[in-house]
Amino acid sequence: MPAFSGLFAPHWREDARGVIVGLTAYARSGHIARAVLEATAWQTREVLDAARAVAELPFAELRVDGGMTANELLMQFQADVLGVPVIRPAVAETTALGAAFAAGLAVGFWSGLDDLRERWSEGRRWVPSMDEAPREAEYAQWKKAVQRSLGWTE
Fold first, then answer.
1. Strands (E), the chain
2. What's the sign of the alpha-carbon dihedral 85, 90, 92, 98?
3. What are phi and psi of 123, to 5 degrees?
4. What is the mean pLDDT of residues 50-62?
């Protein structure tokens, strides 16, 4: 549980701290590294579940960007825990691209948002391969870990 300075959305708990639970004598550094990646995916699921609860909008795919999207294991696990495809664009660093697009719009280089939409293209897609029962069982374990991270400060 990477709650080093608290647990943020959707929990908003300042008293949470990072914890590692469930270790056995067989745990190695690779297990810790994988746990970090899985925690990222579970935290994303929690935020998206919270958003779905208030927005009541259909959720058919997750479009991702940034450096972590280079990790194939993370992207597949993210698709598995969400139960929807995860899509990385051809240009994964879209923050810089977005700034360039905004500047181009401001000076009239681009004709409008439709012109920009035409420039987006899919780079890679991961489809869920985990069945619902194991997904929900693992999510229950994640929620237990969240509870164990709480209450470490006054």
1. 62-63, 86-89, 122-126
2. negative
3. -100, -40
4. 89
